[in-house]
């Protein structure tokens, strides 16, 4: 189907939705809600679609005048002046419309749970994991997002063994979903007297926030254990069994939570993380099925994939998926220049999807 034919189909559907909603007998029904959601999505792109349709028709009209041997000379002159300007506008608007019509990831608008874990590299890996966590917290601040700590296990020397935070705001998952993977750092540790560069790593996972309606969990599939929360060095945080460990038996996913003094609050936080992990597993399975024909999977969700290197001696950050290097290490870690990487990854993903759509 040509792009113009697709535009006509989409615009006809938009007008059909307007009629269906205005004449709907039960505005409180699930059907009405689904139609409203579809209408809201199309309503955002409808002006662009109509603009491209108008431009397409104007180009065809000007070309027809130029091709008509009996056309008025003044009309031909006017058409000859306008046609190059119209043709110059067309490619950019066409690409914008194609991107607008790409299949939407329904999770893009959701909040996200971001998890950071120290990998290989001992104490230095923990310090790097803490750097990454601060980077995302600072980036969230630049976006006007809210960050809530779900769990945090530190190394006692300023590093992080593992941490989990909920980031809430507009389009959080859309902008952070490509951060999942292995992040590598190359730098001279403060404890290194010889000045040698060490390589360490930390793993980042970004999960869309899931609701209970997204994931069906049979209570019989859960094993819930309670235990006494403990702090660094084995010291007890409190004297009650407030910590919670939930195991989802079918998938083997285990979530522990002990940061709150209340067992009820720890259980609620653990369930929130568990739902999101199960939801992400389901999404990854669906993505693999859809992505078989894609030549490039930016942020495929493979957490063993090395996606980025932070090189301190050279002051550079390199994203290996798109071969992009920025000599702005400090600005990236401050959260100020992370947008440049995020925008480039989104653009590459859109180009990949456009190529797949054109080949299908």
What would you say this structure looks like, in words?
- By secondary structure, the protein is α+β, with helices and mostly antiparallel strands.
- Helix content is 47%, strand content 20%.
- The chain contains 8 helices and 11 strands.
- The chain has helices at residues 3-22, 30-67, 73-100, 122-143, 172-176, 263-290, 329-333, 338-359; strands at 112-118, 146-154, 160-168, 181-187, 198-208, 222-227, 243-248, 253-257, 306-311, 316-319, 324-326.
- The strands form 2 sheets. It has an 8-stranded mixed sheet. Strands 6-7-8 form a 3-stranded antiparallel sheet, covered by helices on one side.
- Strand 7 and strand 8 (253-257) form a beta hairpin.
- Helix 1 crosses helix 2 and helix 2 packs antiparallel against helix 3 (73-100).
- Residues 232-237 and 292-303 have low confidence and may be disordered.
């Amino acid at each position: 189907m040509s792009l113009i034919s697709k535009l006509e189909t989409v615009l006809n559907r938009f007008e059909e939705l307007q009629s269906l909603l205005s004449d709907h007998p039960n505005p409180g029904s699930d059907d009405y809600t689904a139609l409203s959601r579809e209408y809201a999505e199309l309503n955002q792109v409808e002006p662009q679609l109509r603009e491209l349709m108008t431009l397409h028709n104007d180009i065809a009209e000007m070309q027809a005048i130029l091709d008509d041997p009996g056309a008025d000379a003044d009309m031909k002159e006017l058409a000859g002046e306008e046609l190059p300007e119209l043709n110059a506008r067309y490619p950019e608007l066409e690409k914008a419309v194609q991107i607008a019509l790409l299949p939407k990831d329904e999770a893009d608008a959701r909040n996200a749970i971001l998890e950071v874990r120290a990998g290989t590299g001992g104490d230095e890996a923990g310090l790097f994991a803490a750097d990454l966590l601060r980077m995302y917290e600072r980036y969230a601040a630049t976006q006007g997002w809210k960050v809530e700590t779900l769990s945090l296990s530190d190394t006692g020397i300023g590093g992080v063994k593992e941490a989990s935070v909920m980031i809430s705001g507009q389009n959080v998952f859309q902008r952070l979903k490509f951060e999942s993977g292995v992040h590598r750092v190359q730098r001279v540790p403060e404890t290194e007297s010889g000045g040698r560069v060490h390589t360490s790593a930390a793993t980042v996972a970004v999960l869309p926030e899931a609701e209970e309606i997204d994931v069906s969990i049979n209570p019989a599939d859960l094993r819930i254990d309670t235990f006494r929360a403990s702090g660094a060095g084995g010291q007890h945080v409190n004297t009650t069994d407030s910590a919670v460990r939930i195991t989802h038996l079918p998938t083997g996913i285990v979530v522990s939570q002990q940061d709150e003094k209340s067992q009820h609050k720890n259980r609620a936080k653990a369930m929130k993380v568990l739902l999101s992990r199960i939801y992400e597993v389901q999404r990854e399975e669906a993505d693999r099925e859809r992505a078989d024909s894609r030549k490039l999977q930016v942020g495929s969700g493979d957490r063993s994939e090395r996606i980025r290197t932070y090189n301190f001696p050279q002051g550079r950050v390199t994203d290996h998926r798109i071969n992009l290097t920025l000599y702005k290490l400090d600005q990236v870690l401050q959260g100020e220049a992370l947008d440049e990487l995020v925008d480039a990854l989104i653009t590459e993903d859109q180009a990949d999807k456009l190529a797949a759509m054109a080949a299908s």
